[in-house]
């Protein structure tokens, strides 16, 4: 599942928990959203690092 879908899933859990008064479900939803943001940031860092690596390879050629 991609980070965007994980954020949506987390938001749904959070809102469901709020509506039903289920604090644990609400907390799980918030946690899922944070995990998705971290995953998204890590993916961005990886892509940037790959871009730098590729540009360095190109410069050496």
Description:
Residues 4-50 form the CsbD-like domain. InterPro entries: CsbD, YjbJ_sf. It holds the Pfam family CsbD. Belongs to the UPF0337 (CsbD) family. This is General stress protein CsbD. The chain is mostly helical and 61 residues long. It has a domain at 33-60. The chain is 92% helix and 0% strand. The chain is built from 2 helices and no strands. It is rod-shaped, with a radius of gyration of 18 Å. The model has no long low-confidence stretch (mean pLDDT 94).
Strand-helix topology:
Layout: H1 3-20, H2 23-60
Helix pairs in contact: 1-2
Report the span from N to C terminus: 38 Å
What series of H and E elements makes up the topology?
A: HH
| Separate helix tally | 2
Relative strand content: under 5%
User: Mind summarizing the main beta sheet?
Assistant: none
């Amino acid at each position: 599942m991609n980070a965007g879908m994980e954020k949506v899933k987390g938001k749904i859990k959070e809102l469901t928990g709020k509506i039903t008064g289920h604090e644990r479900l609400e907390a799980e939803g918030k946690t899922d959203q944070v995990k998705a943001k971290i995953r998204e940031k890590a993916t961005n860092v990886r892509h940037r690092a790959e871009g730098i690596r590729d540009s360095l390879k190109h410069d050496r050629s």
